[in-house]
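Sample pair:
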Amino acid sequence: MVNLHSLAQKGLLPARIAVVVASRECKGVERAKELNLPVHIVPFGQMPDLESYSSRITAILLQARVDLVVMAGFLSMWRISTEYEGRVMNIHPALLPSFGGKGMFGHRVHEAVLAAGCKVSGCTVHFVNNNYDEGPIIVQRCVEVLKNDTPDTLADRVFEQECQAYPEAIRLFAAGRLRIDGRVVHRLD
């Protein structure tokens, strides 16, 4: 979020952060407040069910007139409404479809990559559907898995690529250069 905000402020990303939605207090909320961004916390556990939770988030986004939802560390399930189909992106710290799904986030992903003996890892920006990490892939970036990597060292290199991949995907979306065809995203020239 901080990277995207910084790029937008410098005119290097055709976007602005209209609202930040979180399911709980976290570093992202602290950083958003430091940047004077509007923040809404919608705790999943305080809502009666997934539909109420999802409706509340959608209402906040619609009120803020959000064109593209960019998830960054949002771990709760949000059922995407028809208004936002094809307009929600997420970034995952692995090369999907490997090492994705419910419960696969943060260091868990990097630990799994190392335990599997992978020679490469990376990040994936994908459109979000209503299943964890199964949406069509927009951008992927690779990093080599080094012999002495730890989850921390691998995470650092993957994060460097995330800071490039997410803005790339947002720029493509803003320029109207993405077309979803089932599970495949085509880049238009």
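The chain has two domains: 1-67, 85-189.
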